[in-house]
Design brief:
Blueprint (H helix, E strand, L loop, with lengths): L7 E8 L3 H13 L5 E5 L7 H4 L11 H4 L15 H14 L6 E3 L1 E9 L4 E8 L4 E11 L23 E3 L14 E5 L3 H10 L5 E6 L5 E4 L4 H9 L2 H25 L1 H16 L5 H4 L11 E4 L2 H7 L3 E5 L2 E4 L3 E4 L4 E3 L2 E4 L12 E4 L2 E2 L7 E2 L3 E2 L5 E3 L8 H22 L3 E4 L18 H5 L19 H9 L8 E4 L1 H13 L1
Parallel strand pairs: 1-2, 1-6, 2-3, 4-17, 6-21, 7-16, 8-9, 8-16, 9-12, 10-11
Antiparallel strand pairs: 4-5, 5-6, 13-14, 14-15, 17-18, 19-20, 22-23
Helix pairs in contact: 1-11, 5-10, 6-7, 7-8, 11-13
Length: about 500
Amino acid sequence: MKHETPVEHFDVLIVGAGISGIGMAVHLKDKCPDRSFVMLDRGEEIGGTWRLFQYPGIRSDSDMHTLGFEFEPWREQKAIADGPSIMKYLHRIRNERKLDDHIRLGHKVLSAAWSSADACWTVEAENSKGDTVRITAGFLYLGAGYYDYDEGHDAGFVDKDKFRGDIIHPQFWPRDYDYSGKRVVIIGSGATAVTLLPSMTDKAAHVTMLQRTPTWYAVRPAKDALANFMRRIMPDEWAYAITRRKNVFMQHLFFNRARTRPDKVAKMLMKGVRKALGSEPDPVAFTPPYNPWEQRLCLVPDGDMFAAIRDGKADVVTDHIERFTETGIQLKSGQHLDADVIITATGLKLAMAGKVAMSVDGRPVDLHEHYYYKGCMFSNIPNMVIVFGYLNASWTLKVDIVAKYVCRLLNHLKATGTRIVMPRLDDPDSIEEEPIFDFSSGYVQRGLHLLPRNAVNMPWRVTQDYLFEKKVLTEEAVDDGVLQFTTEMERAEADRAIAAE
């Protein structure tokens, strides 16, 4: 039988105990030590994505000197790290920073309702016992990621139910699944497929990556030789900071180069593929119909995927699926791929704000109707920040600067004796709008209807430029004339005046 627990109040409520939530918690303890906070996560362990994804070979697709936090050095030899190593890193932070008292696992956040009269959010969650938990908080930080934890993207394959083998979506990999001696077909050519292919060749009879469209690959060492050398001659903190700055600069330079001279970048990337394969790449399989960084670049550490192909343990087929059969996949070219296991690495399903149902003063919130403010808040929504990391760089880069910005906001509220901060936009029609992302990736295009609006000019926009946003969020004045700082009484009176007009 469900029952409600007593209502608790905190200064800040953090949704999600993955990278985004843990980063916010550490910054809060450091920069706002007088603020109470709680972190809720639906899982029974911290880690977010790294807890959920358990498929073979799960690893970072960014280097850990930028996917790691700026406050916690990455001390492992491999810069391109596997999932267990990343979980170990997060648990180390949890323990060293004494976060246990702030974390409540097994709490799925269902709704968040803002009251201007009370200057707080009322958040409802369901715990692992099925009981309703209600918490109020002055500030809401949404760090639940950007995809649907309940379901992956379903590509709607014809006759899928006829296949007699196993069909697995990587997001829901069965524990201890044994694929020894089986013929495996991986549908997709993104980061997940590229990770799965070399990882499964140790046990599978053969692995085929079936792609509709080729992907651009960046072949690079799994270990950062310069970082590991510096760690031998200087303190970890110094070596980490230097490596982080170097990698941020190189990411920025490479992305801009890809946008201005895609032909040059394409040649460089293809050179890496050619070297890893040891032969001339098949143009059908390895020449994408788009420029580098029009979709997220796939990282291939130590060229492991190409080594598996070179050794005959795997291959790549470029074709379209006509239908599933009892024994595999029938392609439109007439070819049939025999399979015992089909892995649908067809992408994620986008979800904003962890699918939390939000309202402001009784009015439901549809984020698609609001403009981004400085890439982390939203027009006319008070006391709320969200983290949506970079598509062209490491997610954690955004986490660090957004967390710092939240701390700056909280300290400004305290210094001015106000309790409410809201990016005020009186006339949305006066804003010149542009697409929020210029990436053609499937999961982005499928989720555009869920995403907030984006303007041509700051502050009503989100960018893919870390160096620019770092300056905006950590250096520019908090009180910029757009943010409205009020008390609960002032805001309630303003709302009543608007309602009376």
